[in-house]
Amino acid sequence: MARRKLVAGNWKMNGSLAALAELDGIDAAARANPGVDVAICPPFTLIAPAVARAPGLPIGGQDCHAARCGAHTGCTSVELLREAGAALVIVGHSERRADQHETSEEVRGKAGAAIAGGLVAIVCVGETEAERDAGQALAVVERQLAESLPAGADAATLVVAYEPVWAIGTGRTPSCDDIACVHAALRARLRTLIGGEADGVRILYGGSVKPDNAAEILNLPDVDGALVGGASLTAAQFAPIIAACI
Ligand SMILES: O=C[C@H](O)COP(=O)(O)O
Question: In the chain, N or C terminus with fewer CB closer than 10 Å?
C-alpha cells in the first residue's frame, strides 16, 4: 500500500515566539513538496501562535492527558490542544517515559483520548542502548507497541515512531539494516494488532535525522517518514529533510 511520507518536527522544550519565523521557510518547503506531509510540534504555548503564523501547516502537541478535564495541574487535554488548533499529538516519547515515568498503559490512554478527540496520535517506541546490546531491541519495541496501542486506532488516526533512545540527540543512528529490521518487525506486529489497517499506518524513524543522512533513512522499506528533533528547529536544516522524501 502506498503511504504518504510524513516528516514531523518535535521542537521539545525549544523555540520562542521569535523562532516561529522559522515556520515561514518550513511552510514553503512543505508547499514545494506537495507529496510529503509535514508537521511541527512546538511547546504548548506556541501552538496557537504557530497555527496563526502558518495556517496551512499541521501543528501538534508533544503530550496530552488521557482525561477530558479535571484536577491535573500542568497537564493539557486533547480538547485544549484542539482549541489551540492542533491536528496531532506525540505520545509516549522516550523523554516523557524517562522524565515523567510514563508507562505504556498510560501512553495507551493518552493515544486513545487523542484519537477519540479527533487528533492524529504519534505513538513513540524505542529501546535503550542496554536493551539493544542485550539483543532485546525487537522484543522491547514490539511490547511497547502492543501495550501502547488504543482500541480504535487505524491508518488515518495512528502514526508510530521508532526512536532508539540512544540515537536521540547523539548524532548516532542505527545501521540502515537495523532500522529496516525494526520497522519490518513493527509492521508485522501491527498486523497482528489491527489487521489490514496496519499496511496504511505510517512508521516514522526518529533519532539524529539530519540533512546528510535523511535520504538513505527515508528510502528504506517500511520507513514512512521521520520524527525530527534538533534539525526541525530551523528551516535551513528541516527543509532538506522534507525534500529527501522522494
Ligand atoms: O522526537 C524527536 C526525537 O527525539 C529525535 O530527536 P533528534 O532528532 O534531536 O535526535
Answer: N
Q: What is the pTM of this model?
A: 0.98
Q: Nearest residue CA, atom 3 of ligand 1? A: 229
Angle at 147 between CA 146 and CA 150, to 5 degrees: 85
Evaluate: CB of 60 within 6 angstroms of ligand 1: no
Average pLDDT value for the chain: 97
- Side-chain half-sphere exposure of 203, counting CA atoms within 13 A: 29
Q: Containing domain of residue 77, as a range? A: 5-243
- Which CATH number belongs to the domain containing residue 133 in this structure? 3.20.20.70
Q: In whole angstroms, give the CA distance from residue 151 to residue 161.
A: 18
Number of domains in the chain: 1
Residue 220: other Cβ atoms inside 10 A: 16
Residue 246 pLDDT class (50, 70, 90 cuts): confident
CB of 39 shorter than 6 A to ligand 1? no
Torsion 174-179-180-181 (CA) sign: positive
pLDDT at position 217 over 90: yes
Residue 123, H or E segment = strand 120-125
Residue 1 pLDDT class (50, 70, 90 cuts): low
Q: By alpha-carbon position, which residue is closest to atom 2 of ligand 1? A: 229
